[in-house]
Amino acid sequence: MRDIKLNIFQLILFTILVFISLTSVCAAKPSAPVISVLKNNTLLSIAWSPVANAQNYQLFYAPFPFLGVDTIASVNLGDTLLFSAELLDGDAFYVTVVANNNEGSSDFSNIELFFISTVNLDSEVLAVTAGDWYKPELSISWQWQLNGVVNEDYQVSLFDIDLFDAPGSLINNLKISGKKVICYFSAGSYENFRADVDKFNTNELGNTLDGFPDERWLDIRSENIANIMTSRLDMAVLKGCDGVEPDNMDAYVNDSGFDLTANDQLAFNKFIANEAHKRGLSVGLKNDLDQIQLLVNFFDFHVNEQCYEFNECDTLKPFIDAGKPVLNVEYQQLLVDDEIARDTLCKESQLMQFSSLVLPLDLDDTFRFSCNNI
């Protein structure tokens, strides 16, 4: 229902704006500003771009989840370009800004969604269990594509696609066709091609990931990193994702450049899972096999790479035992070329109730073999 609520919210805002415009002199009205939202624990800051000839700016806001037209409020902010406020832990709002002058009102700025939450990187924290979010079933059919134009034609139940690259229209189309959408982002690494790269501090960037020269490990102990990742979760909600796949959740067993402990990783992974659930998002654990027993209650599914190739699939059994799917991908060329080898993989996968795919390493849909025959 989250995407439906957001559409209703946008429609009501549009209606309000049309009313404002029709009651003004229909001439050269201002252009729409562009807003950005920054959070530092409970301190919220909303900034927007200056608009030529704007005489004042008006902030519209409504609580998340959207509860109806009566909950939309606005405040006139004069000619300032920044709004800051100290809010309460757990507050969540949609926000947008309009520019006004004597000739009328602009269109709405981009609509942003934010959640206020205090960063709690505690390895002993309890799992968030209250709430309603998507929980995929065992042996679910799925497709994973992170590069290239997403092929929407697969008749599967779940698509896993890139959070940043996927337009809202794609997510909406997939959902209209009855599919669930999981949105991928890297929670444990810095990618130099993402739109939010300016939010990272230099001292939070570690060693380059093996095989990925444009990625660097992150210091997951940093509150700033935690805030960046919760902003990405906000983006996932705003785009209409049903859930998220946070990647690189095992920095502590890699050459990260930081002295990270198992408890540091547990704290970070639990934080990400709990923050996703607070937003009504399903969340999957990516790899991090050594901590599965401690994390299975926090996550709704597991995304695994190459457990058959490395003889690690038995470690994923706690997810199956908990009724939570394992979305497994294998990349070996043997499995592409040899149908007998692929059939052997699939028989084992089906016995374990895994959802296994054989895909290209680039995840670009150049080929696809599914053990679910879909």
| CATH level 1 name of the largest domain | Alpha Beta
Strand tally is 20
Radius of gyration (CA) equals 22 Å
Distance between the termini: 27 Å
Largest sheet: 9 strands, mixed
Mean pLDDT across every amino acid position: 93
Residue stretches low in confidence (pLDDT < 50, at least 5 long) are 1-6, 22-26
Strand content: 25-35%
* Annotated CATH homologous superfamily of the largest domain: Aldolase class I
User: Which word captures the global form?
Assistant: globular
Helix percent reads 10-25%
Tally of distinct domains: 2
Main sheet: strand order: 9-10-11-15-16-17-18-19-20
What is the N-to-C succession of helices and strands?
A: HEEEEEEEEEEHEEEEHEHEHEHEHHEE
CATH topology of the largest domain: TIM Barrel
CATH architecture of the largest domain: Alpha-Beta Barrel
| Multimerization state | single chain
Number of helices: 8
Structure classification: alpha/beta
